[in-house]
Amino acid sequence: MESIKVVVIFGTRPEAIKMAPLVKELEKNPQIQCVVCVTAQHRELLDQVLELFNIVPQYDLNIMKSKQSLTGITCSVLEGLEEIFESEKPDIVLVHGDTTTTFAASLAAFYRKIPVGHVEAGLRTHNKFFPYPEEINRKLTGALADLHFAPTTTSKENLLREGVDESSIFVTGNTVIDAMKYTIKEKYIFENNELNAINYKNKKVIIVTAHRRENWGSGIENICNALKIVVCENKDVEVLYLVHPNPVVKDMVSSILKGVDRIHLLSPIDTGEIHNLMKKCYLVMTDSGGIQEEAPHLGKPVLVLRDVTERVEAQHAGTVKLVGTDVGEIVSNANKLLRNSEAYNHMSRSINPYGDGNASAKIVDSLLKYFKIY
């Protein structure tokens, strides 16, 4: 073959952040025709990333609806991609990670007998309900994929244990590290003036994100109550809680934390904003997956507000620590990092296991070799 057509599909902000540098790398290669399709499983949050990286999709399914269900997302993606695949006839479809868009797009490609490349393949918690539905999404995508771009050797080993042919697995690092080469700026000025007003030099700023389905209800409630205690016991702390717009999360967070001194409830910010905010902060507390990879790259310790994590490499490296959603555990671990410089330095200076920022180039090189384009 002299050239290939690659359709890249994503639908949420986390996917977009990690696929954007890969899109840029694909577009640079004259032997690759890159076609971008977004499902807009998330709308506004996705658009922020597209604008930041100057990516204009050729296709936009625009499936997001109020109170959308997992079944509805799956059906909309399957139906929307059928016509696109018939028109484009791609040589391969690339998907990312563990969203419902990822699984449904892989299934749609399988139905058309189109090869699937899975970026960020092989992450596992080995519990199908944690995180939900992401663990099953990535396992099902792995079963459908022809090429597996694993971020680490641990991810590769997970795939090998599941019977995946070793010749189809490529260890590349994680593309999110690539993305940070585009987003981190010296002397960055935030679009949100409330962020510019924070005293990052004299305050210990904690960034918080928590919105996972398995934390809805008592999990989010516990996290919020723990934050109240942390700021009460540490007068030099400011908390910046980036509150997910889902009413299930937003309403509970607001009911507990609105008006609490030194806790700022903020709307989600775009990728450039959050990467530069992480660079300035002291500590991150999150139930997100991607932040467990991003913050350690900037030397920021991460307390993971979940009982299990698929980013076990970060645990082993010492850059993140699982604390769950127990109030006492959150408070004691936060206080330790806020008050014990040795404990803080141990986490902040550990080596990030997610690569050197060249994952996208390695993926492109693997595609060219797979299709025997030299």
From TrEMBL:
Q: Which UniProt keywords apply?
A: Isomerase
Q: Does the keyword Isomerase apply?
A: yes
Q: Which InterPro entries match?
A: UDP_GlcNAc_Epimerase_2_dom (IPR003331), WecB-like (IPR029767)
Q: Which residues form the UDP-N-acetylglucosamine 2-epimerase domain?
A: 24-367
> Which Pfam family would be a valid example here?
Epimerase_2
Enzyme nomenclature, EC number: 5.1.3.14
Alphabetically, the GO molecular function entries are: UDP-N-acetylglucosamine 2-epimerase activity
Keyword Membrane found: no
* PANTHER family given in the database record: UDP-N-ACETYLGLUCOSAMINE 2-EPIMERASE
NCBIfam families cross-referenced by the UniProt entry = wecB
Q: Which family does it belong to?
A: Belongs to the UDP-N-acetylglucosamine 2-epimerase family.
What is this protein's name?
UDP-N-acetylglucosamine 2-epimerase (non-hydrolyzing)
Q: Give the organism, scientific name.
A: Clostridium tagluense
